Amino acid sequence: MKALVTGGAGFIGSHTADALLARGYDVRVLDSLEEPVHQGGQIPGYLDPKIEFIHGDVCDQTVLLEALQGCDVVYHFAAFQDYLPIFSRFFLVNAVSTASIFELIVREGLPIKKVVVASSQAAMGEGLYKDAQGKTALPDIRSHEQLKSGEWDIRPPAGFAGPMQYQHSDEIVSNPQNPYGLSKISQESITMQMGRRYGIPSVAMRYSIVQGPRQSVHNAYSGACRIFSLSFHEGRDPSIYEDGQQVRDFVNIEDVVAANILVMEGDRANFNVFNVGGDKAITVSEFAETVASVFGRNDFESVPCGKFRFGDTRHIRSDVSKLKALGWSPQRDTRYSVEAYREWLSGTESLGEILKHAEAQMEKLNVVQSVGAS
Ligand SMILES: NC(=O)c1ccc[n+]([C@@H]2O[C@H](COP(=O)([O-])OP(=O)(O)OC[C@H]3O[C@@H](n4cnc5c(N)ncnc54)[C@H](O)[C@@H]3O)[C@@H](O)[C@H]2O)c1
Q1: Domains in the chain: how many in total?
Q2: What CATH number is given to the structural domain containing 283?
Q3: Which of 110, 194, 253, 348 is most solvent-facing, going by the fewest CB within 10 Å?
Q4: Residue 122 alpha carbon to ligand 1 centre in Å
Q5: Model's pTM, two decimal places?
Q6: Distance between CA atoms of 96 and 54, rounded to whole angstroms?
Q7: How many CA atoms lie within 13 A of 244 on its CB side?
Q8: Which run of H or E residues covers position 26?
Q9: Residue 17's domain spans which residues?
Q10: What is the pLDDT of residues 136-179, one digit of tens each?
Q11: Is the CB of 79 under 6 A from ligand 1?
Q12: Which of 262, 258, 250 is nearest to 326 (CA)?
């Protein structure tokens, strides 16, 4: 059996490729080695030399066809993930490339037995809420005006009675609020509809926030584990946005890989979208304290820095019961993930002032803003 892993030089792709090799698959990776994830466009040292590597862009159908030929299964992980306002690129790289995979399979009659695509919790945006009377709502993004006034919780939409309480969001929830989330929901729909229509077994994985080694220290999009770990590594306290009480859902990379393999083998997952999350709520402050403790900073106290990131969700937690019904469950907690990430960071050369540059970039893009400032 041969597997194609697009984006296989990245974090989730490379770990999945290793698991496939361990199971006896031949593995081919198609990756364009994008900056800033891959500094200098170099093949990362962790990529197993047994992998056949094609340097190319998933938006190029000629290269994509070359990569698909001779493969039995496809994992589509290549993606544009950024805060940059290049809206069309999200759809081009994340959604159009997915349509191309199905187009080429159908046009060329390729005998692909399974397509697994990487969706995201971002497809659910602020997720599902209930108001004081138990009425369900899919709230919109919080406004600038609200956040600038330092009011963090979701306001009741018109016709709803507060306070609003977040729920565990299942796969039916679709409420994307940024171009990335929109492109991911499109990718899911393309995968489900084209898969069913042409009888190509297909699965979409809605990952929550994945944590573990190889998560690029340069990726502006990758979240709290990288930022908090780098802060403590550089000897300073991380910035805690809002009030630190935002609920997050982190999942370990080894659990993600187990899910990726599970849905590929057998038929039970076919033509379904699955949430892949940690099955545990943790606040940003609690997570910062976990990271502090792993870095030996037992004196750390989580204090809000008076800023917020416009577009962040207030709370989000995935309901993973659908995937659990297939026999999967998350086995590793956030401490395990942070310890593994710390160990990996210690082997990474010249971390320099990555965080300072990343923060400056986020302020320049107006993503990070101060409460009360005009
Ligand atoms: N890491 C997370 O927490 C998370 C959460 C939800 C969803 N996802 C999704 O999982 C997938 C993998 O994410 P990751 O964290 O491993 O990201 P990553 O940045 O580590 O890896 C992505 C890889 O894709 C490659 N790539 C980007 N654009 C490409 C293109 N046009 N052609 C070919 N290759 C290209 C990059 O060079 C990189 O190696 C993505 O689709 C992402 O949207 C990740």
Answers
A1: 1
A2: 3.40.50.720
A3: 348
A4: 14
A5: 0.95
A6: 20
A7: 15
A8: strand 26-31
A9: 2-370
A10: 999 999 999 999 999 999 999 999 998 999 999 999 999 999 99
A11: yes
A12: 262
